[in-house]
Amino acid sequence: MATTEASGMIMTKSVEGADVLADQAARVGTHDVKVAASKVSVFYGEKQALFDVTIDIPARQVMAFIGPSGCGKSTFLRCINRMNDTIDICRVTGSIEIDGANVYDAKIDPVLLRARVGMVFQKPNPFPKSIYDNIAYGPRIHGKAKAGSEMDAIVEASLRRAGLWNEVKDRLKEPGTGLSGGQQQRLCIARAIAVNPDIILMDEPCSALDPIATAKVEELIDELRERYTIVIVTHSMQQAARVSQRAAFFHLGHLVEEGATEHMFTNPSDRRTQDYITGRFG
Amino acid sequence: MSDKSAATTRTGIWYEPDASLKRRYAADKRLRIYGVAAIVFALSMLAILVGTIVMTALPAVTQTHVTLQVELSAEAIDRSDPRSASYQKMLADTISRLYPEVDTPRELRELRQLFTNNAQYMLRDMVVADPSLIGQTVDFTFPMSDIGDQLHKGGIDRNLPPEQRRINNDQIGWYDRLVEQDRITTPLNTGMIFNADSRFPELAGLRGALVGSFYALLICFLVSFPVGISAAVYLEEFAPKNRWTDLIEVNINNLAAVPSIVFGLLGLAVFLNFFGMPRSAPIVGGLVLSLMTLPTIIIATRAALKAVPPSIREAAIGVGASKMQTVGHHVLPLAMPGILTGTIIGLAQALGETAPLLLIGMNAFITAAPDSMFNPSTALPTQIYIWADSPERGFTSRTSAAIVVLLGFLVCMNAIAIYMRKRFERKW
After folding, report:
1. Is residue A190 part of a domain?
2. If you placed Cys at A232, which of A59, A172, A202, B393 could pair as Cys (CB 3.0 to 4.6 Å)?
3. Among A150, A232, A155, which residue's Cα sits nearest to residue A194?
4. Which ipTM value was assigned to this complex?
C-alpha cells in the first residue's frame, strides 16, 4: 500500500514536471477547468475504494477514465453527480467542484446537480415508455417545458443532437425498449441531453454494443464535445484513444497518471500505465 | 502414471456401459417414476374431490315446482288492501278441491307437508305486485317442500318400508297424482343464488352470503391494498437497512404464517369488544380479513419492487428525478402487475377464510341480505358451514352447490391473476 501511494506521489510530480508542456498543449484554446476534484476518497463501509483522487477535468473535452476492473474509475465517475448517494454504506470525503461549487456541499441539491450532470449507463436503460416520453420525462419533472409544441421542440432537438431523429421520427409513440441496442444507447444519450446538462458522464457506454453501434456512439461523442464536457469510463484502450483528448489511468483505487491521451498512450510516465496499455495486465 | 493405469484398467469396448452407469440410469428412472406417481396421485385426489362435490351438488341445480290453479276471487281480496287477504285459506281451498277425499286434520297436515311453507306469502307477493289478477283464476307455480323435492329427484326410496322413510304411502300417492296431472316442473334453481338464507332448503339461497362476502372483500381490499403497498414501498425503497427494519421484515413474514383463527380472536377482542363495532357485520369481517391479507400483499409487493431492475432506478435518478418521483413514476407502475397478482391471490385466500368470521359472528342465521356493510350478514364460507350443519336432506346438495360457487369465484380470481402475470410479463 505504501509503495503505491509513494508512486502516486511520483506520478503527480511527473505531471507537474517534465510533461507540463505536453499537458498544456492539450489544453489549448478556451478550455477552462469544469470539474475540479480534490483529495476524493470513497469508502464502502469499512473498505476504501478510492484514495485521495485529485484531478481537473477541462470543459468541452472528452476525458477518458481507464484502468483494470475494480480500479475505482466508475466509483469516481459516480461521485461527480452523486449517484453514490443511493448506496447506503457509501461515504465520500474530499471535494468535487463544478464551476467553483462543491457538489458535496450541504446546500447543493442532488436533484439539481443531476440535471446539470447527465449520465449514460453501461447497459442501455430506456424507460419502458414511448420514445417521446423517454426524452420528455426529464424536462417535464424539472419543469423546463410545458407539454405541447415546446416539449416537441426539445424532444426533436435532443434526438437530432443524439443523431437518432431520422431513425425514429416516424415512431415516437413506440416503446423505447423496441429499438436496437445501439439506438437505445443513443436514446439514453438524448434523454440526458434533454435536460440541458453541462457535463455528461458515460459509464462504459459501448460495452453492450456491437462494433457498428459502437462506432456510431463514438462519432456522437465526438460531436457532443462541442457543447458538453464529457467524462467516459471505458475498458477499451482503442476507444479511449479514439474519442478522448485527455485520459486518466486508475489502478487499485489510485489515480496513477493523467494527461493528454495521445501523450499517455505513446509515452506513459508510470510503469503501471505502460504495462496496462501494452496489455501486460488488466 | 494415470494414463498408464487408465490404459491397464480399461477392459472391453469403451462404449460398453458398465455397471455404475446402469445404476445411475436406474436411479434416474426410479426418480422419474416417483415423480409421475406423485402427480398422478395428487391429480386423482383432486378429481375425486371435485367430482364428489359436483355430483352431490347436481340435484341442487333444479328445484321441483308445482303449479296449481288458484282462484283469486274479488270477494276474498280487498282491492284497496290486497295484503290483508287470507291467502293461506285460498291455497287450502285450492288443495282441498284437488284432493276432495282428504278430510282429517292429520291427513291435511301431511298433505300440506308436500308444499313449501311460504307458498301463501309468495301468492300474496304475486297479487300485490299485480292487482289486476284479482277476480281471475291464475296458474300459481311455487316450490315443493324438501320432501316433495327429494321424492321427485329420487332422493327417497319408495321400496323402503314406510316407517323407514320420511314420507308415507298417502303422501306418495298424492304426489303421484300431481305428476299424472302434469303439475310438476323442475325449472333451474335460481332461488339458490337470488334468495337469502332460510330454514327451508327449497327456499334457502346464497344472496345474503354473496352480498356479505362482497362487502367484506371490498373492505378488505380498500384497507389492505393501500396500507400494504405503502408499507412495502417504504420498507423496500426508503427505510434504512438496519436491525429494526430486519426485525419488522421477519415479523411480517411470521404474520403471514399466523393461523387465521388468531386473527378472528383479535377481531373479536379489538373491533367488537373494544371499539364496539356491530357483531356479524361485513365491515368487521373485512377488517379482520384485511389484517390477514396485509402480510401477503406486503410480501408480494416487496418481491415485485425487487424485481424491477436497478437500471430503471438509476436511469430516473440520473436525469434528476427525486426518490419519490423515481418510485412513483417508474418503479411502482412497473411493479404494479406483480402487486395486483399478489393482491388478487391474497383476496382469494380471504374469500375462502372461515375461522376468523366464525369468531366475529358471521355464521349467524340471517334471512335477509344485508343492506349495507354494517348489517348482520353471513359470508360464502360461513354459509357453507351453516348449511353443512343443517339436518334437512335438501341442504346436502345445497352445501355442495355453495362450495361449487365458492370454488368458481376462487378459480376466476386465480385465473385473472395468472392472466395478468402473463399479459404484463416484461423482458428487460
Report:
1. no
2. A202
3. A155
4. 0.82
Rounded to a whole number of angstroms, the distance from the CA of A112 to the nearest CA of chain B is 7
Q: How many domains does chain A have?
A: 1
Nearest to A88 among B240, B309, B426 (CB): B240
Residue A192 falls within a domain, yes or no? no
Strand partners, A91: A43
CATH for A112 = 3.40.50.300
A109 domain-assigned: yes
pTM above 0.90, yes or no: no
- Residues in A touching B424 (Cβ below 8 Å): none
Cβ <8 Å between B320 and A83: no
Distance CA B326, CA A174 (A): 22
Test the B interface: residue of A44, A137, A199, A207 with most B CBs within 10 Å = A137
Spatial distance between the Cα atoms of A76 and A258, rounded to a whole number of angstroms: 14
> Cβ–Cβ of A123/B329 closer than 8 Å?
no
Alpha-carbon gap: B250 to the closest alpha carbon of chain A (Å): 21
Q: What is the mean pLDDT of each run of 10 residues along chain B (428 residues)?
A: 52 78 93 97 97 93 92 84 87 88 88 89 90 88 91 87 85 91 91 90 92 95 96 92 90 91 94 92 95 94 93 92 92 92 93 94 90 92 94 91 95 91 72
Q: Which of B319, B324, B325 to mutate to test the interface with A (most CBs of A within 10 A)?
A: B319
- Strands A229-233, A199-203: pairing kind: parallel
- Tell if the CB–CB gap between B317 and A127 is shorter than 8 Å: no
The three three-digit cell numbers of residue B327, written as one number: 418510485
Which triple of cell numbers denotes residue B78? 280487498
